[in-house]
Amino acid sequence: MFSTEQSSALHLRTACTTLALLGAIALCSCKREERAYRVDPPLATRINSKQLVTLEPGPRSPSPPTKNAYEENANALSDGKRLYTQMNCVGCHAHGGGGMGPPLMDSQWIYGSQPEQIFATIVEGRPNGMPSFRGHIADYQVWELAAYVRSLSGLAFSNAATGRDDHLRGGQPENSAQKTEPKQSFVPKSAEMP
Questions:
Q1: Residue 149: its H or E element
Q2: pLDDT of res. 10
Q3: Other beta carbons within 10 Å of 98
Q4: Where are the domains of the chain?
Q5: What is the maximum alpha-carbon separation in the chain?
Q6: CA-to-CA distance for 51 and 55, rounded, in angstroms?
Q7: By CB neighbour count within 10 A (0-12 exposed, 13-18 middle, 19+ buried), where does 138 fall?
């Protein structure tokens, strides 16, 4: 049998070993339990000036489109939908069907349907109507908004759709629409620069 001193020492060693083991487990499991709600935005350079013409010297190969990881994140699409309403995009584009502004659910895109083109449109604005949101929205929120806008015409990843929207209505999520191939549209006469 153990004496009381030996028993106390044994319990103390067992307790220290258990604490050290629990500490090691806690340190190793921190990454596993980490919740990352924000996806890193695409590495597109900030647009600092509007390009009014596409005329450039020398041969030009088209750059590959920027991949927007927010299009594959249900939380980011939901945030984009919330921003769409909060920034009053609904006032001009309605809920994607158009109004004073062009529709976002069709296959006609005046300034392009790629994520970086939508980003530039939101940040810089467009002549005769689309305001510039530079400085009013953080870049990652612009990318979330661009992902939601693309989802309206079925261009976002359909498996990222949440099962319901924020108001608990059971309607179809926007990015479950049929995918249509966007066509380059012409700038309306009212939007041309003099």
A1: helix 139-152
A2: 73
A3: 15
A4: 69-191
A5: 101
A6: 10
A7: exposed
- Residue that has been written with the tokens 């000036």 in this structure: 49
**115-124 vs 139-152: helix axis angle to the nearest 10?**
120
Identify the three-state secondary structure at position 184.
strand
Mean pLDDT, contiguous 10-residue spans, the chain (194 residues): 68 80 66 52 54 58 72 85 91 84 84 88 88 90 91 79 56 68 69 65
Phi and psi at residue 4, in whole multiples of 5°?
-65, -35
Query: Encoding tokens for residue 17?
Result: 């070993």
State which amino acid sits at residue 6: Q
Rounded CA-CA distance 145/71 in Å is: 10
CA distance 74 to 78: 6
> Residue 85: which of 76, 96, 75 has the closest Cα?
96
Beta strands at 183-184 and 108-109: parallel, antiparallel or unpaired: parallel
Classify residue 92 as exposed, middle or buried by CB count within 10 Å of its CB (0-12, 13-18, 19+).
middle
The CATH architecture that domain 69-191 belongs to is Orthogonal Bundle (1.10)
Contact between 40 and 72 (Cβ < 8 Å): no
What pLDDT score was predicted for residue 31? 46
153 by Cβ neighbours in 10 Å (0-12 / 13-18 / 19+) ranks as: buried
